[in-house]
Structure formats: structure tokens, C-alpha cells
UniProtKB/TrEMBL annotation:
Keyword Transport (UniProt): no
Protein's name according to its UniProt entry: Polyphosphate:nucleotide phosphotransferase, PPK2 family
Annotated ranges, domain Polyphosphate kinase-2-related: 30-266
Organism: Pedobacter nyackensis
Molecular-function GO terms, alphabetical: polyphosphate kinase activity
Length: 306
């Protein structure tokens, strides 16, 4: 099965209606075939990551956003299992700390950016500030933004400025060599219920469930609206969003892995070529090492004959 990842990419400037997207893969490929293909992609990712690290010219930032139980952790673990952990870093963002509230909303995310040659994964991201905060505008008051001391003042102008801040932030990153991949794992409300019930029924998964998850589930329509606005406002040519169907975990993992693979290929990177003086130095070092081997063999022969 060859996936056309472009079908999941949100075109820059497009007004998104999630009703136009499916949460479930409806193709003919079976899970076993998809699992086999995922293994093949992982093998390619390993090779491309080596070139990516050696080239040291870009960094990659993968951001995941989703409703609860959409499978972010599973996707991240499967994708990352095909990569060298020394070249990766994963951050899972929780509610901001008091120190983070003393800075602008992008500060803690800027601190967590990957350096050149490395891949950074953000489990939740700065988009929480236009998703959760859009549904719960009272959270914005914790930021103490000048002029916004009351929920009633947090109007459409405020959100437009926040989207603009995000676009400018991401443009700055892409202009300076960070390749951004933004993934929205789109799970259905029915599938979320199924996974919640599995967490409740399985003692080993009880820790994953919180009563607060049910409260947020009750705001599903509000969240879908917030996602639609965020996707519409912030999917750009340089840092597009991908809306990945997530009802079938194996397929979501396959799509995300393939998006990363296609991103690597698009960079067209190659191993660095040494300058002529360094190449000549390597030739000399090789000669020394070979001479050393010859001397060692000669010495062993002499000792044996003596």
C-alpha cells in the first residue's frame, strides 16, 4: 500500500470543516500488511536519520494535538522506535507552571526546541493556547496579559492576534532551518468512548483515565470548533497541518511514519563531503594504520620464528 500523505495535508488558507474529514481509514489494506509496511518505513527512517544528523543543517519538530484517547502516546512510541534515541527528544506538556506563566505563552515551547541534526517531538504544544484556552478562556487570565483582566475582554481580536503570533513564531523557525510537522490525530467521539471504557475495564490502564476526561468530552462540539479555527488559521505552506484519521491505531501510526519519511526525502540531504586537505589527511592516517598492521604482523612472525 502506498499512502498519499498529501491527502491529509491542510492547504494553506483553507477553511477547515472537520465534517469533510473521516476519522477512520476505509481502504482495503489489512492491518497485517500495514504493520509490515510500517516495519519497512522504520528501516528507512533509521538510514535517513543518520544522514540528517550528519548533515547538521536542519532540525525537525513534530507536534501532536488530539482529543483524549486519540492515541498520541502510541503513535509517538511506534514512530520513535525506528529512530536512534540519541538524536531525538520528546516533551509532554502539562499545565503551565508559575514560572511559565511569568513569560509569554510561547516561551516554554521555544525552550524545548530541537537543535540542528535532532528530531523533537512535542506531545501537545503551543496550540493548547488556542484549543484548551479557547474552550476555557478563564485559563487565559492566568497569563496576566495586559488589557485582559476579564473573560469578557477575550474577544475575537485576541484570538486573531494569538493565531498571528503562532504563525510568526513558526515562520521564524522554518526560516532558520526547523522543519515543522503538525499532526492532528482525528478520533471520533464513539471511538473515544470505546477507549475510555477499555481504560476503565483494564486495571493496568486505570491510571490513564481521569474524571476530568469526561468533563472535557462533554465539550466535544466546542473543541471541534476550536480545532477547525486553529487548523484554518495556522496551516501554512511552510508548516502545514495533517489531519490523520485515528480510529484505527495501526493506520494512524503508519501515516505519521510515512509523513516523517516523506519529510526526510524532501530535504534531499547527503552525507557531508570533507574538504581536500581533510581527505588527504585521512589517506595519510589510513596509511599509518595499515603500516601499523604490517609491523604488528611482522613482529608476530619474528617472535614465532625465534
Amino acid at each position: 500500500m502506498k499512502i498519499d500523505v498529501k491527502q491529509y495535508q491542510v492547504a494553506a488558507g483553507k477553511k477547515v470543516s472537520l465534517n469533510d474529514y473521516s476519522t477512520c481509514y476505509n481502504g482495503s489494506t489489512e492491518k497485517d500488511d500495514g504493520t509490515e509496511e510500517l516495519a519497512e518505513i522504520k528501516a528507512q527512517l533509521t538510514r535517513f536519520q543518520e544522514i540528517f544528523y550528519a548533515a547538521d543543517s536542519h532540525s525537525i519538530l513534530i507536534m501532536f494535538q488530539a482529543m483524549d484517547a486519540a492515541g498520541k502516546d502510541g503513535v509517538i512510541s511506534h514512530v520513535m522506535s525506528g529512530l536512534n534515541p540519541q538524536g531525538c527528544q520528546v516533551y509532554s506538556f502539562k499545565a503551565p507552571t508559575s514560572e511559565e506563566y511569568d513569560h509569554d505563552f510561547l516561551w516554554r515551547h521555544y525552550k524545548a526546541l530541537p537543535e540542528r541534526g535532532r528530531i523533537g517531538v512535542h506531545n501537545r504544544s503551543h496550540y493548547e493556547n488556542v484549543l484548551v484556552c479557547k474552550v476555557h478562556p478563564e485559563y487565559v487570565l492566568n497569563e496576566r496579559v495586559p488589557g485582559y483582566t476579564d473573560i469578557k475582554k477575550i474577544d475575537e481580536t485576541f484570538w486573531k492576534r494569538r493565531y498571528e503570533s503562532i504563525r510568526n513564531f513558526e515562520k521564524h523557525l522554518t526560516d532558520n532551518g526547523t522543519v515543522i510537522i503538525k499532526i492532528f490525530l482525528y478520533v471520533s467521539k464513539e471511538e473515544q468512548k470505546k477507549r475510555f471504557l477499555e481504560r476503565i475495564d483494564d486495571p493496568a490502564k486505570n491510571w490513564k483515565f481521569s474524571s476530568g476526561d469526561i468533563a472535557e468530552r462533554g465539550l466535544w462540539k466546542d473543541y471541534m470548533k476550536a480545532y477547525e479555527e486553529a487548523l484554518s488559521e495556522t496551516s501554512t505552506e511552510a508548516s502545514p497541518w495533517y489531519i490523520v484519521p485515528a480510529d484505527k491505531k495501526w493506520y494512524a501510526r503508519l501515516v505519521v511514519s510515512d509523513i516523517l519519511l516523506q519529510t526526510f526525502k524532501g530535504l534531499d540531504l547527503k552525507f557531508p563531503v570533507l574538504a581536500k586537505p581533510e581527505q588527504e589527511q585521512l589517506v595519510e592516517i589510513k596509511k599509518q594504520l595499515l603500516d601499523e598492521t604490517i609491523m604488528s604482523l611482522h613482529s608476530k612472525a619474528m617472535n614465532k620464528n625465534s
